[in-house]
Write a structure and sequence with these properties.
CATH architecture of the largest domain: 3-Layer(aba) Sandwich
CATH superfamily of the largest domain: Vaccinia Virus protein VP39
Number of domains: 2
CATH class of the largest domain: Alpha Beta
Helix content: 25-40%
CATH topology of the largest domain: Rossmann fold
Number of helices: 12
Strand content: 25-35%
Bound molecules: S-adenosylmethionine
Order of helices and strands: EHEEHEEHEHHEEHHEHEHEHEHEEHEEE
Radius of gyration: 22 Å
Shape: elongated
Distance between the termini: 33 Å
């Protein structure tokens, strides 16, 4: 077994669940040695492609190979100049490692060119690693607690920016981030066919297609459906994809009348009207009272057509009275024979995703056996 260091995104519990879901689905033989807020140490048996994995995982920032000594670095270039970086995670002082790296370069008669982050004392940001081509043309050492690793792959934020820019139809108020879309798809563990019953302009569907899945989408808004069709056709052509896609105009509370089957669902449904100012408890309860029956109906219907897991965003509203208004989603899932997916004790369900005016609960549920 080879040991790897996974540098986690800002929502570390979500990243850990995503890794577990991804490894299970891809049948990787692995053992989670431990994790904290910034990283996970994982031993993996057999083939593991860090470059493909970093593209598919939404919640991972870098993947490194654990090494015992900086001397494990082997120079493969020709001009004896090496760009290098040192990124600390949960360590106070990296001066010893910096010294060791400098001596190692000296021993190998190399000239090290130190690339530092703009954020004094912190790790290199993924965009800095990508811009400096540290993986292809140099080396980045990751220093995490007592571990040392060499970066094999870093998340490329420019890929996402490019994809966002290129899409023919956009409406940022209605679309989920590519990052969260990937996380939800991985959490759903869809094998062949993924369904998004609230597909909007189709970000989740588009990412599903890029991961090799056949996708189906439903939306009750005709403009969204037309836009999703245009976007998915564009993605299919641009990346020469051989997967199928279908988007249908309809009401997902009637799901079983619209589609017959899918392996899994990944979705961010309608989360209520756009909130400009924090609501009162009464206002938030009013919105929740409209959303809850919609969630209830969709979960009931999903049980009839979907075999596997559902990864779904559920809103939770902070209010000016400092009390959160929460959906009774655990009762809904119980009613229809689902249970929360809890692959490890340490992480509860739902996982909170607190970015933006509404707080998102990320739920992964599976049929009770
Ligand atoms: C947050 S957006 C979806 C974002 C989308 N999942 C993505 O990948 O970007 C919510 C969508 O749900 C749609 N919607 C609301 N109620 C619906 C219903 N009952 N059936 C189908 N679609 C619905 C809205 O028209 C809107 O496009």
């Amino acid at each position: 077994m080879k040991e790897y260091l996974f540098i986690l995104g800002r929502d570390h519990e979500l990243s850990i669940l995503e890794i577990i879901a991804y490894f299970e689905k891809n049948k990787l033989n692995y053992s989670m040695k431990g994790f904290t807020v910034s990283a996970a140490v994982i031993a993996i048996d057999g083939e593991f492609d860090s470059v493909i994995s970093i593209k598919q995982l939404g919640g991972i920032v870098k993947i490194g190979e654990i090494i015992s000594d900086v001397r494990d670095y082997i120079y493969e270039g020709t001009d004896n100049k090496v760009k290098f970086g040192v990124s600390p995670y949960e360590v106070e002082d990296i001066s010893d490692i910096e010294q060791e790296i400098k001596s190692m370069f000296k021993e190998q008669k190399l000239k090290g060119i130190y690339k530092k982050t703009k954020r004094e004392g912190g790790p290199l940001m993924p965009n800095e690693v990508i811009k400096q081509k540290l993986v292809e043309e140099g080396v980045e050492f990751l220093v995490y607690r007592n571990y040392l690793a060499k970066t094999l792959a870093a998340f490329n934020p420019f890929d996402h920016e490019k994809r966002d820019e290129q899409m023919p139809c956009k409406d940022y108020l209605k679309t989920i981030s590519i990052r969260l879309a990937k996380i939800l798809i991985n959490l759903s563990q869809a094998k062949k066919t993924l369904l998004d019953p609230f597909c909007g302009y189709g970000v989740i569907l588009q990412e599903g297609m890029l991961m090799g899945l056949d996708v189906k989408g439903i939306d009750q808004d005709k403009t969204s459906i037309d836009s999703a069709k245009t976007n998915l056709r564009f993605i299919e052509k641009k990346y020469n994809l051989k997967v199928s896609y279908k988007v249908i105009h309809g009401d997902s509370t009637q799901l079983s009348k619209i589609i017959q089957n899918a392996d899994a669902i990944a979705t961010e449904p309608f989360l209520g009207p756009y909130i400009k100012e924090m609501p009162t408890i009464q206002e938030a309860q009013k919105t929740m009272a409209k959303l809850e029956p919609m969630y209830d109906a969709v979960i009931k219907e999903a049980k009839k057509v979907v075999k596997g897991k559902i990864a779904i965003v559920v809103p939770r509203f902070p209010t000016i009275q400092n009390v959160e208004v929460v959906m009774r989603f655990s009762q809904i899932i119980k009613k229809y024979g689902y249970k929360p997916w809890r692959p490890i004790e340490l992480i509860g369900m739902p996982v909170i995703y607190p970015h933006g005016r509404i707080v998102r609960e990320i739920w992964v549920i599976e049929p009770e056996t």
